[in-house]
Each structure stands twice: as C-alpha cells, then as structure tokens.
Write a structure and sequence with these properties.
Length: 437
C-alpha cells in the first residue's frame, strides 16, 4: 500500500513521474525482446494558466482531477497513464494506430468540464514519438515526444504532432551546435563586439555597449539569438558572460584611459542575477582588469526586479558602493518600475527598441515616450534610447530630452578593431591652419 501511494499522483490518482519513468523503461525492455512498438504521447494543456489566474488554483485542481479521470476512462488495454506534474500528462501505448489514438486523446481533452458553474474546455497539445522507429531509449523517446509537443503548441495548440524527419534534422542540428558551443567557449570563439553610445546633443561617442558574437569556424559570425538561448538552457551562459566580460574589459580599458569614452555597458543574464554572490564575483573580476569601476555600467532587466526585488537591491547597492553604474534595460516593455528608480541607485534607463520603432508611426507612442522621459528626468535618471534607426527618431528623442542614443542610424555593432579605428578617427586632433607671416 505504501509503495502504491509513493507511485501515485494524489490529485488525479494517475501514476506520478517516478512511476512513469520506471514504467517506460520496463515497456521498452519488453518491446526489445518482442520486437513490438511503443508509442509515447506527452500532453500539455493549452490555456491552463489563464484558468488558474481567473478562477484560482482550486479550480485548476478540479480541472486536472477531471482530466485525470477522463484519461483513465479513455485508456486502452495495457496503457499507462501518468501525470508528470503541473498540467503535463503522458500516455504509454502499444496501439499501432498512432494517429487514431492521438485524435482520441485530443477529443478527450477538448470536452468541456463544469467548474464553479462555468463550462471550461482549455484543450491540449499532444506530441508523440514511437519506439523503435524514432528512438532507441527512454531518454530520446521523451525528448523527441517533447519536440513534437512544442511544435503542436507553436502551431496554435488543440492539435497533435508526431516526431518526423524534419524534427530529427532539427534535433541533430541542435546536438551538433551544443557540442560546438561547449568547445567554442574555451577556444575563444565567443568574442565581444561593440556598439557606440552617442551623446544626443553633440552626436559624439561617449560609450559602448558590449555584445557577444560567435566566430564559428564554419558558419561564420553568429548573433546572440543563434546561441544564447541554448547557452542558458545548458547552463553555459555564465561562462560566456565571464569570457566576454574579461575580453571586453581588456579591449576597452585603454579607450577609457585615453578619454575616448567614459562608459562600457554590459548586459547581465537573469540567471546570473539570481546568484546571491553575483555582485561580489563581478567586483572581484573587475578588480583583475584595468577598467575603472566608474566606467562600467551593468544593464539589468525589469523582470529581474519583479522576480526578486530584495536580491536586486543587494546587488545594485553593492555595485553602486564600488562606483559601478547600473542601468535598467528594456524600460517600457511592460511594467515600468518607477518605484525602483525612486528607491534604488539606478542611474540610467534604456528605452526599449520596440517603443522607439513606433516614433512617427503612432502619436500615442510619441506621447508615451515624452511622458516617460519627463518622469525619468524628474527622478534624476539619465535616459538612453536603443534601436534608433533613422534621423526622424533621433530628432524627436533629442527634442524630447533623451540624453544618449544608440542604434543603426549611428553605427552597427562592430569588432574591437573597427571600434578602435572609429574612436581614434573621432578623437584625432584637428589640424591647425598655417597663418601667413
């Protein structure tokens, strides 16, 4: 009895994740001996979070219990039905007609349930992979079924998708890229690039933002979107951040010493910020470089302030005490945290490019930006606009009181050598005209 309870999900009465994993391995071992196929269906509800938000968690529990009952009653002979956690379920089946079984599951998930007198039918997305056709072990079978599930959700949900040649090619590409990324970090292939930050009134360069690029030996230069999400998933983002930070400090310290720039802005990943020791570690790494603390600006996102304001305060105050500046990135994309600007030593806000893009297209955006600039100025905070792509945007921002700007209108990101050449040219002494004697 105790063992059975340990293997059962208390809310739905289905087997739990631990029992599911054991059961899947046992089914695959048996199938290897008989040559039979085993289909794994993974299920994720489509609008479960909105139900929880609108009706409360107890209503969500009632729906999950109802779906558990429905899946149990719909189960075929010998099928194992599990709740993996949250609103995730799984079905292990030896039914050879995978399409028919997936359609039946989709229909079962779409049936409405009455919760607190309301008809609720969130529907679900389903991904399926089959042993041994698609995978030869439990880990790959689950991974491939998950990939099919993500595709079904990306297509709008309330549908099912099977692992196929397209997803296999995607999986192989990802696996290759993962191995290459693990090799690229110690090999020095992830390097800093720099985008100028200019003074809005004079147009002169006053700083640079540091951006990571991957010099891939075969694919050429890769932008962050091609590797940063994977690095975050694999837990490699901290190693990348540290590598890029050290290289950027070494490159920019002479520019600061020459008086060419006063600011070096570096982005910090939310994962790093959640480390209670982050600010101490950053200060320690900075001390090993020639870059003055007063020249460094650490950019953090608003979402981090919302997730852990107390930890954010400790990091920001610790950095500020050493002279490191802190900027609030992506300002205006959602919850613009004016309270944080009032109570934390944040010196700069960066207006998000999605707002800048609306200048000249939507009068409401222009009014919103003007009011945000006014609010930030009243708090003594400097404003930097990123993503400035044309003269009209630059003129509006300058007239509205923006302090600094960056974007393709001024310069695209560039490698250190090109950035140094640009700075050297801008700061070259102006030749004096000879005066006739």
């Amino acid at each position: 009895m105790t063992l059975r309870l340990a293997q059962t999900d208390s809310l739905t009465g289905l087997v739990n994740r631990g029992a599911f994993t054991s059961g899947l391995c046992e089914r695959l071992e048996a199938a290897r001996d008989t040559g039979a196929g085993v289909a794994l269906f993974v299920i994720d509800l489509d609008r479960f979070k909105s139900l929880n938000d609108s009706l409360g968690h107890h209503a969500g529990d009632l729906l999950l219990a109802d779906l558990g009952r429905r899946l149990r009653e719909d189960a075929g002979p010998g099928e194992l039905i599990a709740r993996l956690g949250g609103d995730e379920f799984a079905v292990i089946s030896d039914n050879p007609d995978v399409a028919a079984r997936a359609e039946r599951l989709a229909a079962a998930l779409s049936q409405p349930a009455e919760i607190y007198g309301r008809q609720v039918a969130p529907g679900g997305s389903i991904g399926v992979a089959v042993f041994p056709r698609d995978a030869h072990d439990a880990a790959d079978l689950q991974r491939f079924a998950d990939m099919a599930l993500y595709r079904a959700k990306a297509r709008g949900g309330r549908a099912w998708s099977a692992f196929d040649a397209e997803l296999r090619a995607e999986s192989e590409h990802r696996r290759t890229l993962e191995a290459e990324l693990r090799r690229a970090i110690p090999a020095g292939e992830i390097v800093p690039w720099f985008q100028p930050i200019v003074d809005a009134m004079t147009g002169r360069m006053v700083g640079v933002e540091v951006l990571a690029r991957w010099n891939h030996p075969e694919k050429g230069l890769l932008a962050p979107a091609a590797f940063v999400p994977m690095a975050e998933e694999l837990g490699l983002i901290r190693a990348i951040d540290e590598t890029v930070f050290e290289a950027a400090c070494a490159r920019t310290a002479p520019w600061v010493a020459e008086g060419w720039i006063e600011l070096v802005a570096c982005n910090v990943s939310p994962r790093d910020l959640l480390d209670p020791g982050f600010s101490r570690k950053l200060i320690g790494r900075l001390a090993q470089t020639d870059l003055p603390a007063t020249a460094l600006c650490v950019e953090i996102t608003e979402t981090f302030l919302l997730s852990d304001l107390g930890l954010a305060r400790r990091h920001i105050e610790r950095l500020a005490a050493k002279g490191v500046r802190v900027a609030l990135d992506d300002f205006g994309t959602g919850y613009s945290n004016l309270r944080a600007l009032m109570h934390l030593p944040i010196q700069t806000v960066k207006l998000d490019r999605s707002l800048i893009d609306g200048i000249g297209r939507d009068p409401r955006v222009s009014k919103l930006i003007a009011s945000m600039l006014h609010a930030a100025r009243s708090l003594g905070v400097r404003i930097t606009a990123e993503g400035v792509e044309d003269e009209g945007q630059a003129l509006f921002l300058r007239s509205a009181g923006c302090d600094r700007m960056q974007g393709y209108f001024f310069a695209k990101p560039m490698p250190g050598e090109a950035m140094e050449t640009l700075l050297r040219e801008e700061n070259a002494p102006t030749p004096r005209l000879a005066v006739a004697g």
